Every structure is written in C-alpha cells, then in structure tokens.
C-alpha cells in the first residue's frame, strides 16, 4: 500500500464551540455558520483509496467488499490523490470515478447527549461533484432525500440509523468528477476552457472536512436566514425545522451582544407552532432594542440562541452570530444602513489556500484599506464569511459558473445558487451576489431569449426572497435590459489598460452612459437602456498590473504608483465603487499585491482606501 503521511483523528467526541470562544489562535474545524452545543468527531485523516477507471465499482459492489490498494488524505482533491497514488497525469481526463473508505468505532456519547431523541449525523463540509455514501454496505440518503448528492461547494448530511451502527463501522464514499462544461466550475478547466492563463487546474472531490455529530430527531437545521429592517430595529430570522415526531413545539429566541458581561439576553421571544413531519420554513421577527448596526467601520455582531422546545420541555438548540445591516442601490450610489458608501474593493481568488492562509489574506485586504472583497466565482471555506463578519469586510460572492449555456447548465446553476444561499444568508458581511461573470456559461446572452429569461427569473427571485442582497445579473458586460429596465442592481464594467490616458477616456465614456466600445463587449443587451445615473456604476475589475495579457508594471513600487494614479481618476468621477484586480498571485496570474503564503503586503498599507488619496 502506498503511504502518505497520515493524520490520525481523535476518536474522542469534541465539544462544539465558536472560533472566538477561546482565543485568537483557536480554529473551529466545522465549516458552517451555526454552532450546536453537541459533540462531534472529525473523520479527517487517512482513508483507503481506489480509482475506478472502468466504472465497475457499483456493479461489483465495492461498497460491500473491495481491496483498496492506496491511501489518501481527506480533505484533499481527487487530482492530487490520483497523482500521489498512481503517479499518473490527470490533466484533460473526461471523467474519473474514485472510491474512499475508512472505519470508525461506534462513538460513546457523553451523558448530556444521551436522550431518546438523539441520533448521529454524518456531514460532508463539501464533496463532489457527484457523491454517494454507504454505511456498513447500506446505501444512505441525504437529509434532503438524495441518493446521489450533486454539487461540490456546500455541505450536506446523512442521519444515521441506529440499527445500521455496529461496534466498528465502515464508511464508503464514491465520487465522480469530470470536465463537464455544464456543471458549475468557476475558473477550473473544462472541455470548453483549457488550463492556462486565467483557467486553473481542477481541484475537486474530497475538498472539505467530514465529521460525525450528535443531533436531535426534532431540531432546527443549520441554516438561518437574516433580513434586517434597520429603520425599525427589526430582524427577520428564517428557520428550517426538521421534524420526525409531529406535534406542538415552541421556538424560543434569545439575542445577546456577541461580547457582553451580563448573562441576560437583550431580547427574548417565543413562538408556538404545530409542526408536521418533514421540514418547514418559518420566518420569525424580533425587535432589537437600541440596535447597533453592522458596518466595516463598526462590525457589531449579535449572538442568537434558538431553541426548538417539545411538549416535554426538551430544547434542541443552535447558536449563531448575526448583524443588522441594510444595503441599497439608490440612483447612482450605494447606501449601507442609509449612509452613502464608496466601495473600495479587491478581487480575491483563494484557489487552494488553506484556512490559515485565507485568514491572513483577509486581514491583509483589510490592511490595504478595502471595505469590499469580491470572492471570484469560487466555492470557498465557509469560515471565510465568519472572518469578514468579525473584522468588517463587505463580501461580493458569485455562483461558480458553468462553461456552456444549455438547459442542463441552467438547472445546475440554479441548484448551486440555492445551495449557497441556504448556507450563506446568515452573514451580514455578504452584500452582493453575481449570478454570472463575463457571460461564462451564458455565452448566448445577447441572442438567446431563454438564457436572458432564466437570468431575469433568478434576479426577480433574489429580489423577492433575498432582499438583503444587491444582485448583479452578469458582471463585467452584457447586462440585461427588459423594456428599458436593467435587470441588475449595479451596472458593472471590467476595464483593463495600463495606459493612464486611455484609462481616463474609458472612465469618461462609462459615466457618460456609453454602452458600446467601453468594455470588451456591450455593457447592456436586450432592449435599449439609457443610463441617466439611474443605477450605480462600478468598475468591478481593473488593474491586473503584472498579468501578461494586461501589461503594466512588473515591480511592486511601480505598481503602487500606478494604483494611486488610476484610483485617483476613479474618484474624480461619478462611480460608486471599484474592485482592484487582484489580491494574490494564482497560477499564471502574477498580479497580486499580497504574498500568498505569508499575507504580507507588497505595497503600502491603506493603498486601496480612496479616503487616503
């Protein structure tokens, strides 16, 4: 068996806690917004591993018995596991099927977790693109009823039947990955886009932690939506209940300041509900007295403790943090909590960065003077949102784009959007969503009414169901106009040049309302659109200094000079924000201003804060 240095897990159950509950060096291993006062076991470490090149594993029942010849470290990518195990070139494959397996002893539950309603749950922080799971040879269905889980950027879980558990247990996982251009993949290579330039090596499969934890049969799921009404100091919580035993329940809510000396909540309320078996979404509204708003300057957070209480008085509890904030596009400006704000942004592509590296990058971007980080079409460790909540960084997130425009790609895109929303809408830092970027996966947006209709439908859905966000239909160019109405809250443009005089001309053309010949493609498609300052303008990509295709300075000192000059011209004009490209180097894109490993700045602190100009 080929060995890779193993990391042996601790089979003792660990108590769930927040990242900031002990000290600044504590790293919460569970990538989610919600905390449960329960116990968990991380199953990260060494797993048995096999490649299934002929895709015969299902037919031959590998989940019952198979001789796994290799080992691999979980988490990690399928690509690196194949290279480490087989010493083969995995670039430009069509599809790979791989299998993982490991054993674990039946956990001994602490006394506080022993209750008739307790059960074990298996959770994947992210895995895919297609994932199937077996426990002791028995095929499992996800909580959402999926035989096969599709998607590779968000978490999913399995409730484990006590009857299936043994003294020693075996988990078997089958993962299928491919170069399919119809699936959401961001900037990873595909059949359409070959690796190189701005297209990156694929990093798929067992990419995030996996853990066992105790949960209740009747509980609140680990997804809490938050919508603030700052004018009335109200917060709307959207909960999802999971019920096996129908009947009368009460949801009790307690709100605290994240840091407060008193143990008394600042707000408390309860809501009686009759719940049927299955799942139900329920909105509950609370008033926060003397509310403090969340912003990059004062990132004030509250702590929410939510309990689902049954008729016997048993309380199934979750805890999370939230902030009160409101983001709006009014005329040509962006407003945060009813105050005009200029968005000093930076493009961030974490790639294969570890959580520790991501944390350093986030603090470095704050040090640069940014109040906004655009996380570029990537599925990232969800703990990144908690960092942003804490230190005060606005986040612009994007659905990882497919690479082809088809009915199938639109279905996959919609499902990915909904999965992301369910897990991200707790965080006050997330303020902007992009549905597409530069028409990747929507290449026929100008000519195909079906493509435009789909994007418009998703835009309207976001406006109604998730009003706490600003939404961009297709970032960079080719926004959609229908009957003269822009189907985007922001009119964004990607403008690249290393010539200062050309830069001035491009900006002047943009603010004059010129639609054609400003960005690479027309800024608006569909019906005619007349700007007239009715929507905020954002230059959502610019700079790229150091990237071969964009030219410009190669050394940090000259790059700093260029950034100051170009940023000064931006602020002279009626533009609502900008996003410098980019934070760190990644593969062929050598245009970063932060060291990828250390997080050290290559330019002066505060450089991107336009108030310093």
Describe the structure.
The structure is a single chain. With 613 residues, this protein is of the alpha+beta class. The chain folds into three domains: 183 residues, Jelly Rolls (Sandwich); 105 residues, Sandwich (Immunoglobulin-like); 268 residues, Glycosidases (TIM Barrel, Alpha-Beta Barrel). 15% of the residues lie in helices and 32% in strands. The radius of gyration is 25 Å and the shape is globular. The N and C termini lie far apart (60 Å). The N terminus is likely disordered.
List key phrases describing it.
single chain; 613 residues; alpha+beta; Jelly Rolls; Immunoglobulin-like; TIM Barrel; 3 domains; 7-stranded antiparallel sheet; globular; disordered N terminus; Glyco_hydro_2_cat; Glycoside hydrolase family 2; hydrolase; hydrolase activity, hydrolyzing O-glycosyl compounds
Counted up, domains total 3
What is the oligomer described by this structure?
Answer: single chain
Q: CATH homologous superfamily of the largest domain - what is it?
A: Glycosidases
The CATH first-level class of the largest domain comes to Alpha Beta
The largest sheet has its strands arranged as 28-27-26-25-24-34-33-31
Radius of gyration: 25 Å
> Overall mean pLDDT score?
91
Task: Point out poorly predicted stretches.
Answer: 1-12, 19-26
Tally of contiguous helical segments? 7
User: Between the first and last Cα atoms, what is the distance in angstroms?
Assistant: 60 Å
Indicate the structural class. Answer: alpha+beta
Largest beta-sheet characterization: 8 strands, parallel
- Assign an overall shape: globular
CATH topology of the largest domain: TIM Barrel
Q: How many DSSP-defined strands?
A: 34
Family: Belongs to the glycosyl hydrolase 2 family.
GO molecular function: hydrolase activity, hydrolyzing O-glycosyl compounds
Organism: Pedobacter aquae
GO biological process, one term: carbohydrate metabolic process
